[in-house]
Specification:
46% of the residues lie in helices and 14% in strands. It is an alpha/beta fold and 449 residues long.
């Protein structure tokens, strides 16, 4: 209770500064505007109709929402008749969640971690189970959820190097915060050891693997590929490479590498998908400065692309399909110290993946990809160009990698089912549901994968 009071006293003292930052985001950038009411705790009544018991699943943004999809698919299969509330913090994450959830649940914005908003949100939704994805740990939300009798679990849990260093300075806060979580389903043994070091009860920690391997990644139908190729202005004899989820500083390197690639294969085309689509104008200006013609995906319906243009994918939800068009993909957030993005999205479509040295947020997947020989780490433009040239000039190597990628997914799948089993066990223990029949339980157990 003392830590709870101290934490909220600090929030009150900092609230004027937080309000100024929030107003700046609203006025200067338009950020937080769409979900502001829900982040303050007001959830529209139309979203709260119905009497089905509820699961609240939270994933902060796009990448975490993608990782969460296999979890809520498994939860809904294990808990038929329950309703899903999927929250995110960012607008892009919300858009991704709305596309994935469809009519099978509701999407909401996660509340700011101030007591009034947290209390109003949880009292309105009344979840029996709260599932937090990866490292979404918020002290007031966890404390109020526990106070209201919710079962709380961390799914696909990961503790990055940065989180570990930051937590070391606030060990007392982490110990209190983690005491409000009933179970920690961690990605790896290292993550499990780290969460225990931060104060989690070892008896509540289990290793389930990474749910990103459970993504249902099927080949994009040929008809959809042809439609997208035509929409992007790609001719039948023009192979393509994709640079996905790029950040400032990476597009420069990608364009330098692509210049070398074009020298080796003049018909090759490049698709760049910046992580933040509001950076499309800056990426366009950079490409033009490098001497390339440019086409923006959002404008192609009304403006035909110039021949041989670099295509900037400034739309939401099309990157996965774009990966299907390429021979090899570069995944961003890795040539600059962001920590790396989802290597499994292109890999699940049978594409070799290239990435930089900064992969600390996805270290376990990176190790698996490198060990399996389905991806390559590059340090600069020359190394990226060399690998791209090797892959694009060797169809047999690309086919081999596609086959090996299937084996990687087969060996590492099942984490979402293990999370669903943990969730059901928690709900059975609190009497929210009766024991499941063997036929309705997820097949995987709780043993480390």
């Amino acid at each position: 209770m003392v830590i709870f009071l101290l934490y909220n006293l600090v929030l009150v003292l900092l609230s004027p500064l937080a309000l100024l930052v929030l107003l700046w985001r609203l006025v200067a950038y338009g950020k937080s505007r769409k979900g502001f009411a829900e982040q303050m705790g007001w959830i529209a009544g139309r979203k709260l109709r119905g009497t089905a018991p509820r699961i609240w699943l939270h994933a902060v943004s796009v990448g975490e929402t993608v990782a969460a999809k296999p979890i809520w698919e498994a939860l809904l299969a294990a808990l038929p008749g329950w309703e899903l509330f999927h929250s995110t913090t960012t607008d892009t994450g919300q858009a991704q969640a709305q596309r994935m959830v469809g009519g099978r649940g509701q999407t909401v914005y996660f509340p700011f971690d101030f007591l009034p908003g947290v209390w109003l949100s949880l009292r309105a939704v009344r979840p029996r189970l709260v599932v937090l994805v990866e490292t979404e740990l918020w002290p007031n939300f966890l404390a109020v959820a526990k106070l209201l009798g919710c079962r709380v679990m961390l799914a696909n849990g990961i503790i990055s190097d940065r989180s570990l260093r930051g937590a070391a300075r606030f060990g007392f806060l982490y110990r209190w915060m983690l005491s409000n979580i009933d179970c920690f389903c961690m990605q790896s043994r290292e993550d499990a050891d780290r969460i225990i070091r931060l104060g989690a009860d070892p008896d509540r920690v289990t290793v389930v693997g990474n749910t990103k391997f459970d993504q249902v990644l099927t080949a994009v139908p040929l008809g959809e590929q042809v439609t997208l190729r035509n929409a992007l202005g790609l001719k039948r004899d023009e192979p393509a490479v994709v640079a996905g989820s790029t950040h400032p500083g990476e597009e420069e390197i990608v364009l330098q590498a692509f210049r070398q690639l074009k020298t080796a294969q003049p018909k090759l085309r490049l698709i760049i998908a910046p992580r933040a689509i509001d950076r499309a104008q800056a990426v366009e200006e950079l490409a033009v400065a490098h001497g390339f013609a440019v086409a923006r995906r959002s404008k192609l319906a009304t403006t035909p692309p110039p021949p041989d243009a670099v295509i900037i994918l400034d739309t939401i939800g099309e990157l996965a399909r774009a990966y299907a068009l390429c021979g090899a993909a570069f995944v961003g957030g890795s040539l600059v110290p962001i920590g790396g993005h989802n290597l499994l999205e292109p890999l699940g479509l049978g594409k070799a993946v290239l990435f930089g040295p900064h992969m600390h947020k996805t270290r376990d997947i990176t190790a698996i990809v490198l060990e399996a020989g389905v991806g390559y780490q590059v340090a600069d433009a020359d190394a990226l160009a060399a690998r791209w040239i090797e892959l694009m000039s060797t169809p047999r190597l690309r086919r081999k990698i596609a086959d090996q990628a299937k084996d990687v997914f087969a060996r590492h799948s099942g984490a979402a089912a293990r999370c669903a089993l943990v969730a059901r066990t928690l709900l059975e223990a609190m009497g929210a549901i009766g024991p499941a029949s063997e036929g309705r339980r997820p097949a995987s157990g709780l043993a480390d994968p």
